[in-house]
Structures are given as structure tokens and as C-alpha cells.
Design brief:
By secondary structure, the chain is of the alpha/beta class. It is 50% helix and 11% strand. The longest helix has 23 residues, at 212-234. It binds 5,6-dihydroxy-NADP and zinc ion.
Length: 394
């Protein structure tokens, strides 16, 4: 097992009606003024926003609001939020929503506490030195942003979707009531399950095979989410399945499923998806499913041991064929699963058809964002990424 540092400082308050505790939680930290940040309407329609604001009012907690976050959250709204946060001297940003709202809140948190242009942190020009505290009331189990160090933002100037990572932005608390996810469209639930699975899958495919405890946790996270995604497809109101998926979402992206690995994971599929999401505004989870199988077939020979172990330990396939055949069988099982929960397994199945010029540009931007290369299972350069995009675009 390789050396690692595990840092998961977020206080998790999990279960039915836990959003009722919001005022007490905020007061326990001594925060005085809150920027309540939310998306494009779901929290208004569900009544969650009104409930939260009335709890803050009843407790005498001052607040300002900024809604309008869209999926693949935009830099322009973050800039607006930074102005508000500075002018109103807020000391907590409360993100009420899914990953896009949380990531937008983190962007505001960076911009309000560091001088200069907040985009510098996403374009890797500078490293953030501070972030306003972030609190979360989660409404969508997917990204794990409620415990993660990441924020992924789309800059409308060039439609660049880029991420920045810092422990400074890990939320101080996350309120997670699985009931709040029951208003999700089935498609978003499936996208969320896919993203959760992918966060552990990305960490699984490294070079090296030295962490049995982490592999066992990882296998369990993936198996559980696959099982629950199937249950939710037929019964979206199943509380226990919602709860399992919500907790799995946090565990899958708070670094637990990568402890002791030889690198922080592969992440090439995420890098490739971010280009698709930035340009075509597709749902993140669906974008991952659309390219994962093609990526896997492209890289598997460079990391066969881990692919075989994925097929046996995660998917439970028996060793009755060659290693290569077993790896291919595992990839097919994953693609069949994606289809079963109505996820795409190719770019056209996402409902888009990029031109070859667009694929060339995406491959270039993807590698540029990765500092010249991507991946760990196999190191990918620009021609590799382009080949994967082309194959997935057939
Ligand atoms: O905006 P509203 O009206 O709230 O609608 C949202 C949005 O349309 C809706 N929604 C959320 N909760 C709902 C609901 N609708 C009904 N009932 C509810 N309870 O769902 C839609 C998608 O929301 P979004 O927040 O965009 O989804 P998700 O949580 O999947 O976040 C995706 C974003 O996070 C990034 C992705 O790239 C993408 O930009 N990621 C962030 C990560 C991180 N910070 O750690 C890691 C991930 O790998 C990912 O890259
Ligand atoms: Zn993701």
C-alpha cells in the first residue's frame, strides 16, 4: 500500500427531515450572514427554499439569496456571487442543490477571499489561498461535491469547462436527506448513479495492485450503487435505495476509495467528458457513460491485471476464459448496465453528433487541461484522446 493522506473534514448530518436542523447547525459554527445559493427552480418548486429561508428568519440569521445556477455552472454567475458576498460581508455560503450549485458556491468562496480573477484557479495559473466556508443541503446524489475538494466550472468565454481542487473548499457541513432526491427526474437519478460509480471506477484503474482494503470498499460502493440504481429505475420512491445511493455518492468522491493507490486515479474519462459537457451542455453522468466503454477497450491491455480484477472482484465474473476475454466481458457488463438504466454508451446516444473538427478541438483542450497528458491505466496523449472520441462518436 502506498502512503496517503486522507482528509475528510465535512460534518455529515444524514437522514429524514435533517434540513429542519439548518438554523441550529449554522448557529453552532457562529456564522452571522449567509449567502443562500441555489439552482434554476427545483428548490422553489419543492418548497425546500422557502422552508430553509423561514428557518433562518425564525432564528434571526441574516441572509441574502442568489439563484439561477445551471448544470455545468457558469463563471458569470460566480462573478455575480463574488460581488454579493463581498458587499454583504457573508461568512457562509449555503449551497441548496446538486453538484452544480455546490461547485458554484465554491467558486464564489474562492473569489470572495482571494484577490484577482477567480478563473486563475480553474485555469491553473494560481493556487487559491483561502475560501469562504461552504455549507450544503444536498438535493441530488451524484458528484460527491458535498465532501470533495473539487469545483468544476464552465467559462462561457470559449466554453471551457475546468476544475480546481483544494481542501480549503471542502464543505464544513453537509445536510443529506435522501427524501429530497425523490423529486428528481429518472434520467437525473440514473446520471447521478453513473457519476457515483465512475468516481470509484476512475480510482480503481491505476497501475499497481496493493490495496486490498481499498479494493474491497471500492467493490462494495460500485456493487451497491448498481443494485440501487436498478431498484430506483422501477421504484424511484424507495427511501432506502435513495439513502444508500446518497451516502455512496459522498464515500465515492471523498477519496476513501482511492486510499493507498499508486496515483490519485485515472480520470481520463472525466477529462474527456468535461470537454463534451463544456461544449454541448450534456448531463455529466450521461457523458461519462457515453465514453467509458470505448476508453476501457482502448486502454485495457496496458492495465490488464486491474481490468481482470474489476471483472472478478467487482462484477463477480468467473475466471473461465483468458484474461483479455474476461476484461472485455467486464466492459460489456458495464455497458449493458448503463443501457439498462437508460444511459448512453456512445456520443450519438447522448443526442449529439460533434463534427470531426470539434473532436479535434476537444482532444486538444482535454490534453491541454491535463498539462500534456491524461490517465494512469494508460498514459494518453492528444492522438489517443482523439481516437477515443472518434470511436465513441460512431
Ligand atoms: O437547477 P435546478 O432547478 O435545481 O435543477 C437541477 C438540474 O437541472 C436538477 N435537480 C437537482 N436536484 C433536484 C433537481 N430536480 C428535481 N429535484 C431535485 N431534488 O438536476 C439538474 C442537474 O443538477 P446538477 O447540480 O447540475 O447535477 P449534478 O449534481 O450531477 O452536478 C453536475 C456538475 O458537477 C460537476 C459536473 O461536471 C457538473 O458540472 N462535477 C463536480 C464534481 C465535484 N465538485 O467534486 C465531481 C464530478 O466529477 C463532476 O465533474
Ligand atoms: Zn464525476
Amino acid at each position: 500500500m502506498y502512503n496517503f493522506t486522507y482528509y475528510a473534514p465535512t460534518k455529515v448530518i444524514f437522514g429524514k427531515k435533517t434540513e429542519d436542523q439548518i438554523a441550529d447547525v449554522i448557529q453552532s459554527y457562529g456564522f452571522h450572514k449567509v449567502l443562500v445559493h441555489f439552482g434554476s427552480g427545483s428548490v422553489k418548486r419543492s418548497g425546500l427554499l422557502d422552508k430553509v429561508l423561514s428557518k433562518l428568519d425564525a432564528a434571526g440569521i441574516k441572509h441574502v439569496e442568489l439563484g439561477g445556477v445551471v448544470p455545468n455552472p457558469r463563471l458569470s454567475l460566480i462573478r455575480k456571487g463574488i460581488e454579493i458576498a463581498r458587499k454583504e460581508k457573508v461568512d457562509l455560503i449555503l449551497a441548496v442543490g446538486g453538484g452544480s450549485v455546490i461547485d458554484s458556491a465554491k467558486g464564489i468562496g474562492y473569489g470572495a477571499t482571494n484577490p484577482g480573477d477567480v478563473w486563475d484557479f480553474y485555469s491553473k495559473k494560481r493556487v487559491a489561498q483561502a475560501c469562504l466556508p461552504i455549507g450544503v443541503i444536498l438535493t441530488l446524489a451524484a458528484t460527491g461535491s458535498e465532501m470533495s475538494s473539487s469545483s468544476v466550472v464552465t467559462n462561457e468565454d470559449g466554453w471551457l469547462k475546468m476544475g480546481t481542487n483544494s481542501n480549503l473548499s471542502r464543505p464544513v457541513f453537509a445536510i443529506m436527506n435522501p427524501e429530497l432526491t425523490m423529486t428528481l427526474p429518472d434520467y437525473q437519478t440514473a446520471c447521478g448513479c453513473t457519476d457515483i460509480i465512475m468516481h470509484t471506477v476512475e480510482r480503481w484503474f491505476t497501475q499497481g495492485d496493493t490495496m486490498e482494503i481499498t479494493d474491497a470498499i471500492a467493490a462494495s460502493v460500485i456493487q451497491t450503487v448498481m443494485k440501487m440504481a436498478r431498484i430506483l429505475k422501477d421504484n424511484p420512491a424507495d427511501y432506502d435505495a435513495r439513502a444508500e445511493v446518497m451516502w455512496a455518492g459522498s464515500l465515492s468522491h471523498n477519496d476513501l476509495t482511492g486510499c493507498g493507490a499508486s496515483s490519485r486515479g485515472d480520470w481520463a474519462v472525466h477529462g474527456m467528458e468535461h470537454e463534451i459537457g463544456g461544449l454541448f451542455d450534456v448531463a455529466h453522468g450521461a457523458g461519462l457513460a457515453a465514453i467509458w466503454g470505448t476508453w476501457a477497450r482502448y486502454v485495457m491491455d496496458s492495465d490488464l491485471l486491474r481490468f481482470v480484477k474489476y471483472s472478478t472482484n467487482v462484477l463477480g465474473l468467473s475466471r473461465d476464459c483468458s484474461d483479455r476475454e474476461l476484461a472485455l466481458k467486464g466492459i460489456k457488463v458495464m455497458e449493458d448496465f448503463f443501457h439498462e438504466i437508460k444511459m448512453p454508451i456512445s456520443i450519438p446516444e447522448l443526442g449529439i453528433k460533434p463534427t470531426d473538427d470539434q473532436l479535434v478541438m476537444m482532444a486538444h483542450k482535454c490534453i491541454e487541461a491535463g498539462g500534456g497528458q491524461k490517465g494512469a491505466a494508460r498514459i494518453l496523449h492528444e492522438p489517443d484522446v482523439l481516437a477515443i472520441y472518434r470511436e465513441a462518436n460512431r
